[in-house]
């Protein structure tokens, strides 16, 4: 599967995939808004049947970019699609000459953390009790702040 750029026309499809992946999925309206922002890119992986099975949201600031979301449909996880999307994120960072790719991840999300570390992300910090509990009645969960630094593009001198 090759990554494809997604736009406002796919907002409902993205919201439907998000609902398959997590409890607090974004709505089609949120995806519509994201798709209309010039500083945001939405990328997906489509099965040959046309079904959207993975996606990511990248937001570009002046110097850095942020991975706002990456998700793979449950039955498609563990087959390299998340890794392919991260490789694309790195390429987009290089092409757009941003210095760092930033993200937040639940500290207990081992699969995602290991994937990010294998792709060169390092932990920079922790935001305590940042996320809603993942189980009813549970505790709020910490966010780890991670970043992938490509290169400093300017001299300190
Ligand atoms: C985190 C996530 C995006 C990773 O995507 P993925 O397509 O499963 O990732 P990959 O297959 O590229 O890599 C996952 C690694 O974990 C391993 N793995 C083993 N069992 C696995 C399983 N049940 N599910 C996922 N990965 C598994 C894979 O083998 C792979 O390791 P490898 O590259 O050494 O072989 C995906 O699991 C997901 O959408 N999770 C739910 C949403 C989420 O947590 N998003 C991140 C929030 S910050």
Automatic annotation (TrEMBL):
Keyword Acyltransferase: yes
Keyword Transferase: yes
Pfam families, alphabetized: Acetyltransf_1
InterPro entries in UniProt: Acyl_CoA_acyltransferase (IPR016181), Bact_Acetyltransf (IPR050832), GNAT_dom (IPR000182)
Entry keyword set: Acyltransferase, Transferase
GO molecular function: acyltransferase activity, transferring groups other than amino-acyl groups
Position of the signal peptide: none
PANTHER family to which the protein is assigned, alphabetical: AMINOALKYLPHOSPHONATE N-ACETYLTRANSFERASE-RELATED-RELATED
Protein name per the record: Ribosomal-protein-alanine N-acetyltransferase
